[in-house]
Amino acid sequence: MARILLVEDDDALARGLTAALRGEGYSVDPAPDGETALEMARDEPYAVITLDVNLPDMSGFDVLKSLRSNGCRAPILMLTARDSVEDRVRGLDLGADDYLLKPFEPAELAARLRALLRRPAADPSPIIRVGNLEIDRSRCVIWVSGEQIDLRRREWVLLERLVVRVGKVVSKDRLAAEVFGFDEAVAPNAIEVYIARLRRKLGPQGPAIRTMRGLGYVMENTPAAET
Question: Is residue 120 scored above 70 in pLDDT?
């Protein structure tokens, strides 16, 4: 399940594209502006990034330049209503991999993403290890001390969100936004419930998930039994 960062300030368009891409089997994180996109890209090794040129806080070109200067190697697809050669050349020179002119059909966007993901090394290694936990992101399978553990879909998404940010505090609100859809009603204690389920399934040999009161949760590199 390739994870995509969708940088788009038009809320209606972002919702529509997110729903369409999730329907194609992608995991999508929407970002409404450049600063949010840069923060999310620092935390997550995205398989591909779609980046609108016109953003409310900074130019998409500035976001692109910052991403590349900070070592981001993910393929970047620029979305723009601008049809000038100068803009396309500028984006490609700054490190963009492809351009898609607005308006476009979601099917064309999905096809462009598939093409980018077929390129060698477009997606980060699917295998991640945290202590005794091994997670295969390509097959959505996990093992703890060699024993395969069954997870439900939302448990899997929550675990993956913590694993890719191991050692970093992830806020409850951010986890809720990534685990649940835009239009889903979320109970106030929903994340606590899923965290409790994950802890039970990972057991004492799995990595500890520590509650940081008032801040969120952090996955540690040590077994829960040692904390």
Answer: no
Q: How many CA atoms lie within 13 A of 118 on its CB side?
A: 6
CB 50 within 8 A of CB 7: yes
Q: 21-67 pLDDT, tens per residue?
A: 988 888 899 999 999 999 888 877 788 999 999 999 999 999 999 99
pTM of the model: 0.61
**Two structure tokens written together for 29:** 């994180």
> 162-201: b or e for each residue (b if 16 or more CB lie within 10 Å)?
bbbbbeeebebebbbebbbeeeeeeeeebbeebbeebeeb
Amino acid letter, residue 51: L
How confident is the model over 83-88, as a mean pLDDT?
A: 74
3-state secondary structure string, 75-132?
CEEEEECCCCHHHHHHHHHHCCCEEEECCCCHHHHHHHHHHHHCCCCCCCCCEEEECC
